Amino acid sequence: VVHVLAFSPDVKRLASGSADDHIHIWAVETGEQLATLDGHEGTIQAMAWSSDGKYIASGSGDATVRLWDGATYAPLSVLEDHEALITYVTFSSDDRWLASCSIDHSCRIWDVATGTLHRTLRGHKNMVWCADFDEKARQIVTCSDDASVRIWSVKTGDMLVRLHEHRGPVWSATFAPGSKTVLTASSDGTMKLCDSFTGERRLTFEGHEGMINAACFSPDGKFIASAASDNTVRLWRADDGSSMAMFNEHEDKVTFVTFSPDGETLASGSDDGTVRIRAANEWDPDRGEQATNSDDCDWYAWLLRV
Predict the structure, then answer these.
(1) Quick count: other Cβ atoms within 10 Å of Cβ 296?
(2) Structure pTM?
């Protein structure tokens, strides 16, 4: 079973992490397996590429985070300080920092170049699911099963803002591109957009009939995509919170959603074992006609079943 997918910045390679403790690297165009990365001793739960493609980070049920060379796939360092399973990893935009989240109720910030621990962020009362750096890597946001969202100083590790907008666990939190707002998504079926400095709520997004498992911005910040346990993906306008489209191709809960780095496609993954890929002209009226390459992506669906 594949637990996590991560595209390289140029979208030419795809890393998959699975329950067999291995990381597999695939060629996106052909589906050819390029490499297998071994070292973890637990299910691969989290992965990320650095923005320059030089590094791959992975987190596992063995409570470790590992850094790999993004070109040769050689192991670089093992980051050990967490006390339990890793739920999420992400790089800062300048690739200086790596954040890791865990069910040990903490988030840790690591120095990528040295592989050393920079700060430990403690305060959540339950497992931490997600983290995201702002564009200048001055702030980092975390979210937790304790229904709270916290914004911290990357430099000092001090908590700056605490948000408690949701009535259930918060499973996704991300900064808006080029903005000082934070988007959060929760098991209560809603998303909130709040000011990252004052905590003031800007917008509430409602419409899903189940838990929201993932949410993300388009690269230009114009759109928000959400994936939910009602088997749907929804697309929203980021400026006013209006619903633009609903995609209901999946036959089970949707656990993953992401825009391609160029914003030309929207992909979602589901417990039905499939990945759906949609072209931008399906939701953006400003786009011209373009082909939807779903027939070229059959191997993605196969990948999620192995």
Answers:
(1) 13
(2) 0.88
